[in-house]
Amino acid sequence: MAIDLSSFPYLVPQDETGRCYDGYLMIGKNEFRVKLTVPLSNLSETEIICEWKLQEIIDEYMPIIRQRLVHCKDLNTFLKEVISIVESKIKYEESPDVTCNLTSHIVSEIEKIGWHKLVAIDTSFHSVTLKSLDSQQREHLLNIKLNSQCINAAPVTTTYLPCKSLFHWNKEDGLVNLFNEFESTLKNYEEFWDEMEEIDTCTWVLEPEKPTYAAVHRRIAIGTNASVQITVDPKQPKVFPECVFLGADQIINPLKENLNQNLYRWDISRHLLVNLETVLDIKFPSPTNSKKEDFSVECGICYCYRLEQFTPDIVCDDKRCGQPFHRICLYEWLRTLPSTRQSFNTIYGECPFCNKSITVKMPLS
């Protein structure tokens, strides 16, 4: 928590704890008298007392300064960011330019949006992250990268939405209009997120391991070495999704038959998870009655469950074996054996564990 005095040589510790400092901050060619009192626990409650000119600047940018305190790891980093903010302000007063105009413009825009919606802003004021909560209090982030040369130029936006969204840039309303469009767009996907959240909570999702709000796929555990991967339409989340079954034939073939026989029972007025269990005539394993380790079986070749972003998705069809493999592992294993045959993009060989026939398609590069 103590200040690095080599970086701030004009600040003098006032006690042995390193919590009180008095002295000067060099900002550009200016010296400002300051007194800092740092609390024991919460850095964001640091008290700054300084001469009136510096105090005016700090008061103007206080919301940003407080936000910086929350995200800074130590007081040294924070002081450097305060210096950067003050330097920008002084530079603007001496000779207004594009960068300083941008700083004042961004501060004004954020004030209209609300400081409580600001998550992060870099010291150059070129990158801003804002947050919005949907009706279920899920937090969604909007990252905005501004053009440093032109205030009115359309910024680059990044967010986690299930469909690509283009936000219209209005130079008169600027960030305010952009953020309002973002919040309006979030409402279009709330039902989708509700359905996916129920699946994430009530089943064992094998992939993605940490789904984002943009993810439309879920690979759900059905049993040991068996799963179903669904792809949900974010605009119509209760419509029957695309389903791909992964596992041994003796497990997934009955599920495919159930699906074909029961598809007429799909009711879009019901939740996605309820419909899936109805048409498959199963009850998905859940955190209330099982452990994820029961379904996260290691690959029989590399002895890992997760290989980069991949999990085992090829399973030996022999009931007495049922060993899972990563597609790439099995492919590389089989292609080294002289007994292996290949037809187009499919390799035919023997299971490394039981020597029964097994096939694998060439992994996509």
Automatic annotation (TrEMBL):
PROSITE patterns: ZF_RING_2 (PS50089). It comes from the Eukaryota. Residues 299-355 form the RING-type domain. GO terms for biological process: interstrand cross-link repair; protein monoubiquitination. The keyword Zinc-finger applies. It holds the Pfam family FANCL_d3. The keyword Zinc applies. Keywords: Metal-binding, Zinc, Zinc-finger. GO terms for cellular component: Fanconi anaemia nuclear complex. One of its GO terms (molecular function) is ubiquitin protein ligase activity. InterPro entries: Fancl (IPR026848), FANCL_C (IPR026850), FANCL_d2 (IPR043898), FANCL_d3 (IPR044037), FANCL_d3_sf (IPR043003), FancL_WD-rpt_cont_dom (IPR019162), UBQ-conjugating_enzyme/RWD (IPR016135), Znf_RING (IPR001841). PANTHER family: E3 UBIQUITIN-PROTEIN LIGASE FANCL (PTHR13206:SF0), UBIQUITIN LIGASE PROTEIN PHF9 FANCONI ANEMIA GROUP L PROTEIN (PTHR13206). This is RING-type domain-containing protein. The lineage of its organism: Eukaryota, Metazoa, Spiralia, Lophotrochozoa, Mollusca.
